[in-house]
Amino acid sequence: MRVLVLNCGSSSIKVDIIDTEACKSVLSLNVEKINKEPKAQMNGEALAITSALDFDAILTWVMDTLSHHDEIKAISGVAHRVVHGGKKFTQACLVTSEVVAEIERLSILAPLHNPINLKGIRVAMKYFPQMPQVAVFDTAFHQSLPSRAHTYAIDQEISKKHDLRRYGFHGISHRYVSYKAAEYLSQDISQLRLVVCHLGNGCSITAVEFGKSVETSMGLTPLEGLVMGTRPGDLDPGLIGFLQQNEGWSPEQLDDFLNKKCGLMGLSGKTNDMREIIEYAAEGDEGCQLAFNVFCHRLRKYIGAYLAVLGGADAVVFTGGIGENSALVRARVCERLEFLGLMEDEQKNKLVQVDDQRPVQIFSKENSRIKLLVVKTDEELAIAKRATEIIKGNDTVNSIPKIPIAISARHVHLTRETLDVLFGEGYELTTYKPLSQPGQFAANETVTIIGPKNKYENVRILGPIRPKDQVEISRTDEYFLGIDAPIRESGHVEGSGACTLVGPKGEVYLKEGVICAWRHIHMHPNDAASFGVKDKDIVEVEVADEERPLVFKNVLIRVSDKYALEMHIDTDEGNAAEVRSGEEGVLCIGNKEVSLLKRKI
Ligand code: ADP
After folding, report:
1. Is 172 helix (H, G, I), strand (E, B) or coil?
2. pLDDT, tens digit, for every residue of 50-106?
3. Nearest residue CA, atom 21 of ligand 1?
4. What is the pLDDT of residues 304-318, one digit of tens each?
């Protein structure tokens, strides 16, 4: 498939026709320095621009120029890079009038970018009205950040009023590079913890846990975090007020200062180009030496912090112009991180040269616990591939089956012996209704559970009979009954809580058997394969809810060919999740989002 990728920035327009099977650009057209002295290149060769110089005119010129080329006839869709997708866009999507309206609404968060991105979308819709148009967002990959990572520690009322939070950027690159690293390591992304450093003109670092972004350094805007070409990264916010008061700067002047005059440029007083910084620093330029030192120190500090966030990692990955090309930056940054299990191989580092043939290379020592990788990023290809998935409708995100969720009320499983005592010798349970797990049923028969403090009557027995007695109750039930029941996987009752069970014909004292069931998902091996999980894996399940996101941690995966796909939680958890009959939500396992069908039984 061929996709036209349109990347409109404030001073540049970048267009590529990408062949997504061959993974290469078959035609590229770039215009830079728009609003100054625009320079155009087609396939690397200079091209004269004769039209007027404003952005709109140049965009029209780009489209007209493209329409004269045969390659344009073979495209199957148009993909647009959109900088800010806010909270709404958690993944790429087809452009509809609602999507356009939302991107426009989000311009308040990205006034320099979204309006320009929209110009690209509108012009492409005019030129290619029959083509599917896909918006691929820079922020979408980071929408998986847990609230502890995306929330600013400020008044929450003002925060909610304006949707102030960490959004993160460079998501297209962070996601692409993570998958490339996983491919190189021959591991499924859902098994890996990565720290990805995207170091270009803009720089950001992301902690990627099992394919999901869980922490990232850019924030509400791309100003936060690492030192960049012309942006400072982290600052004391008090500095802004100080400059307003003491320099008399307006918001526009401050914006200009923070976006264009800081970072490597501000520190060196000379250049925002890392190649030049390194060159001048070697010649003794103190400003450039300072710029290099501050840049590397900040990055090292962040790597350490992100390794702590992840509790260790499989690899630290470098990408972007600086990350891919500067062995010196990589070496300096890795210094002092040996104690965390990160050992640079100096020789290998110097020899790294990523290209299309070898887009991933390793430069850690054999015995380095954490691998050090360099990955060639390719945002245009990443955008084109993402768009292809959406256009073909086989987006992995959407094709994963729905997982029904069931709430288990307190219940008991009985052995033959216990059933004999409670209901009489040879008594057979009768079916009240079958359960979703094949062969399982809720019985008409019930028992009374007696604990040290209280009792519950009419507790349902689930059949068929089992090799061990097991009483499953919730935390709230434990308090009521006065029983200390451990959280256990079904069937593991050794040393668990005690109680007395009473039936119509007798009673039995169970020395052990009372457990609080470990929340779990039953799945068939086929489902497990499609989710990329295996038996006994522990996953996080996120019930995405605009108002109140909820994450079930420590969810146990149980795989058997006797199981049907279903997540089981107890009544306490059901209440916490506000599960109501027939509701639907979104659930994330590792890197995959799947629809969650909430259902009460
Ligand atoms: P953008 O964010 O605009 O896509 P790039 O990813 O191309 O930027 O990165 C640009 C940065 O990469 C510049 O600071 C440039 O100096 C730096 N860079 C490129 N090659 C080298 C190199 N060999 N050594 C050090 N820095 C380099």
Report:
1. helix
2. 656 789 999 999 999 999 898 898 999 999 999 999 998 988 999 999 999 999 999
3. 325
4. 999 999 999 999 999
Compute the CA torsion angle 98, 103, 108, 113 (nearest 10 deg).
-160
Residue 251 lies in a domain: yes
Tens digits of residue pLDDT in 313-349: 999 999 999 999 999 999 999 999 999 999 999 999 9
The residue to which tokens 């010798």 are assigned = 425
Residue 414 placed within a domain: no
Does an H or E element contain 498, and which?
strand 497-502
Residue with tokens 């256990």: 488
Would the CA dihedral through 469, 473, 479, 485 be positive or negative? positive
Instruction: Supply the pTM of this predicted model.
Output: 0.72
- For the Cβ of 536 lying below 6 angstroms from any atom of ligand 1, the answer is no
Phi-psi region of 401 (alpha: psi -120 to 50; beta: other; left: phi over 0): beta
303: tokens are 């790597």
| Residue 275 CB less than 6 A away from ligand 1 | yes
Same structural domain, 298 and 245: yes
Provide the number of structural domains found in the chain: 4
